[in-house]
Amino acid sequence: MAAVRPALGRVLPGSSMLFLCDMQEKFRHVVYFRQIVSVAARMLKVARLLNVPAVLTEQYPQGLGPTVPELGAQDLQPHSKTCLSMVPVVQQELDARPQLRSVLLCGLETQACILQTALDLLDRGLQVHVVVDACTSRSQVDRLVALSRMRQSGAFLSTSEGLILQLVGDAAHPQFKEVQKLIKEPSPDSGLLGLFQDQNPLFR
User: InterPro entries of this UniProt entry (predicted)?
Assistant: First the structure.
């Protein structure tokens, strides 16, 4: 009997969706917030170029404020939530896309809303790609362990540029030059080298 082939984690525009989680005013103090919002904004620009749908949530906006303007998501209707997972409030969007296979996940906090969203999506049979340079936490220990926890559960840990290049796929793509402009400058440092250096045992 042939062995079951593991999921490769390929990402294609026609079967992918971008999740933007809780990048709100009251979280500005969170370490690397500015950097991860910058990367998430880049992901959103690419999603628009490649016709990848995007959804946006806000955790208890009455207390935590609106989405920060620098994300560039003013055209998206935010889904207000109290549940940590994004999934309950975007259920309708998920159900409307039977072709959906992959979700690209950005935002915060990694150990809370990102982790619980990832687990809910995996439970639905979807492939989850955590954009590691677009997710953060107040505690970098929580961030590190949450990334490891999601990987243990079957999520893929990817960088924004790696996912962007998977989505565009070919230098002959009509939007390739526009995408290339967006990734010409490397993503800002968000402390990931410190998390992954020295063969961190959590990622062996």
Answer: Isochorismatase-like_dom, Isochorismatase-like_sf, Isochorismatase_domain
Q: How far apart are CA 140 and CA 161, in angstroms?
A: 22
At residue 13, what are phi and psi to the nearest 5 degrees? Answer: -60, -40
**Which residues are part of the catalytic machinery?**
22, 81, 113
Q: Does the global pTM surpass 0.85?
A: yes
Closest CA to 106 of 98, 76, 203: 76
- Give residue-wise pLDDT tens across range 129-160: 999 999 999 999 999 999 999 999 999 999 99
Q: How far is CA 64 from CA 19, 40, 80, 83, in A?
A: 19, 19, 11, 14
Strands 127-136 and 156-158: parallel
38: amino acid identity, one letter: S
User: 41 is written with which tokens?
Assistant: 């904004």
